[in-house]
Design brief:
The protein has one domain. It is mainly beta. The radius of gyration is 21 Å and the shape is elongated. Strands 1, 2, 3, 4, 5 and 6 form a six-stranded antiparallel sheet that branches. The longest helix is centred in the last third of the chain and has 5 residues.
Length: 122
């Protein structure tokens, strides 16, 4: 179990396509801070090998990019469809020994499709 706290720094740019549509480009930097973790690696190995307690980086950074189309509907409601991709810049694991050496180059990678609907009421 890992508990991460994160906040997003984003840059958005909208290009007007026509009266009711926009092309939205966005880029984000997400700093993530590890608050607490619990793993069972020490319990499943057969012998004590003296691993340090602090095996994880306390902070990681994720960069992401998305491109989407935003359309204004009747009554000023908005629908947005986008594609996004993101990847961690640095690993969560900081050990380069034994089993953990296999995890060191691993990064969290995300790809997806997003659908947003905004209700506008005055």
């Amino acid at each position: 179990m890992k508990i991460l706290i994160f906040s997003t720094i984003s840059l958005l740019y909208g290009i007007k396509v026509n009266e009711r549509s926009k092309l939205i480009l966005s880029s984000s930097l997400v700093p993530k801070f590890l608050v607490r973790y619990k793993d069972n690696f020490q319990k499943i190995i057969f012998e004590e090998i003296g691993l340090p307690i602090n095996k994880y980086n306390k902070r990681t950074f994720e960069g992401s990019f998305s491109i989407g189309i935003q359309r204004q509907l009747v009554k000023n409601n908005i629908i947005e469809l986008n594609l996004f991709a993101g990847k961690d810049f640095n690993p969560l694991n900081k050990m380069r020994w034994g089993f953990y050496s296999n995890l060191y180059p691993a990064r969290n990678v995300q790809f997806g499709v997003g659908l947003k609907y905004f209700f506008i009421s005055f």
